[in-house]
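Researcher: Good morning. I'm working through a list of sequences from a screen, and I'd like to move beyond sequence-only analysis. For each chain I'm collecting a predicted structure so we can compare shapes side by side. This is the next one on the list. No need for commentary yet; just the structure.
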Amino acid sequence: MIVVEDLTLRQGAFTLRGLSFRIPTGAFGVLMGRTGSGKTTVLEVLAGVRHAISGRIHLNGHDVTRLPPAARNLGYVPQDAAIFRTMTVRENLAFALKIRRQTRNEIADRVLELASWLGLESILDRKAVGLSGGEAQRVALGRALAFRPGVLLLDEPLSAVDEDRRESLLSLLESLRATAAVTVLHVTHSRTEAERLGDLVLRLDDGRVEVMMPGQEHHHTSISSGSITNWTPS
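Model: Good morning. Structure tokens for this chain:
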């Protein structure tokens, strides 16, 4: 579950105040909003790469507001994918597992599992510097999911992908959604993505979060002051 309570954040001259919303455990939440509304800043604060001025962030029942990114048990895929270009695909997928001191066999098994799901088996030993946009996004997604985080943050993951690759990645995200193994917050401008993926679709507008489409699997009872309250997973 992702719970944001009365969050105030700032990036340069841009400020959001009193932001509140929640994504139920295992749900695929989609956050929309016009350019400049603060969607990416919200993800950065949730990920811990930017600090909130005030308010609280709870992930899966834990207050992570002041914790560093590595202690938040989340995977994060920023807009530019941010994979390690000098490493191979295999090394990118293994990175988070190595720093968590998993065994060589555990790492090898998990890398092969991810490569099979993401269609990366044939390029595991290729340097990431030469990958296409779609390949890089799949590697970034695999790296973010490698250690089985409880929360996954995706910032416009399909924006730099051509139409053919976009459909493939949409199908991958649909399969991820179907497992309900991770709580997802996915930022996009695309209504098509929102309708295909979202259990819950939210819009950020003038510092308020409003429900555009409550998911069929979750029950929405009320909204007040831009916050979403009284969600009950089915």
